[in-house]
Amino acid sequence: MKENHSFIELKSRYYGCLLGAAIADTCGYTMEQWHYYREYGEFPEKFMDDIPEDFLTNGVQSPHIDERTGMLMLSDDTQMALFTMDGLEWAYIRMAHREIGTYAASGGYMSLLRWYYTQTGVLADEYLIHKHEHEPVALETIGVKTILNYEELYSPRNPSEQMLSALSTMMMGTMQEPLNDYNDSSALTRVAPVGFFLHATPEVAFEVAASLAATTHGNPSAYLAAGCYAYMIAQVCNGVDLDQAGYQALGCLNQYNYIEGVQEALQYALHMAECNVPPESALAELNPNEYHPEAGIQGAEKILATGVYCALMGEDYAKAMALSANCRGMSSSIAFVTGSFVGALLGDGCIPEGWSDHLELKEMLLTWADHLYRLKEV
Description:
Order of helices and strands: HHHHHHHHHHHHHHHH
Helix content: 55-70%
Number of strands: 0
Radius of gyration: 19 Å
Shape: globular
Structural class: mainly alpha
Largest sheet: none
Number of helices: 16
Strand content: under 5%
């Protein structure tokens, strides 16, 4: 994907990042269910019982519509990204009014507690379920009061046990005072919106994403991978090629401590792609883990590196999606990362016609992407 992409409009990159991530997520999530079925003889999610037989030989090559719902079913990766968008806007408006605060403390963490409520029914504070200052502006155009009015978001989609455990404490971690030593994909994928929302200041996007990840995941490889991810999305939205964005993220990473895990994984992915190492060899090194029903066995830095490699090696969105979604391991998270990069790089026009037609919560995704775009660009 070395052609000139600098002419693509920023709004198309916003849409492309979010839709590209969500559609790829549905494909990777389908494959996770299939791997589970092959291992245990049953599907972990009630709605998933109709995966085509050709997955045995070809894997997923295009989105799979669930027969029961008629939709492309999102995983927890996209669900949490939506709550990050809620938190970004919440914090942005609160900080603008009060002239003080951080994205993590002023909205980001509260929105994660909202997500926790949808998954467990446990409410940290009644304050969280009320309509707040950011919500009428964002949602009134589609007749919804708050993000919690979406019934689909109450459907658990194999949520990370680490994420649930961290939020169950009702305590917010920071990079300076880590809550635990957790490190899994849920620290990474949820910060994708930070990259496009704060694209004008990639270094700030890095810091905000890392801080948001650290609210629940205390391992430096988890929150620093999140920082690199948001930085790269920001730079791609600014017209920088993905490989160059990766090298620039490594430069930004040097400002932090305990960088070795993320540094090694990202450098390796960029090197593998630059040397055009075939997927069968590269992925065996980048993504050695087999799928396991317990979420959270793959570190965020491994998910990021694998997603970067797949995005760089894919000739277009469809090929990059297929490469990432058919990875063993946390394929929904890997595909989400790959899809977000390719969508941001090429714009929403790169997504094959019809692929988003049945996407769950598509209207919500686009409405929020449009609103975040207008919030920062006007």
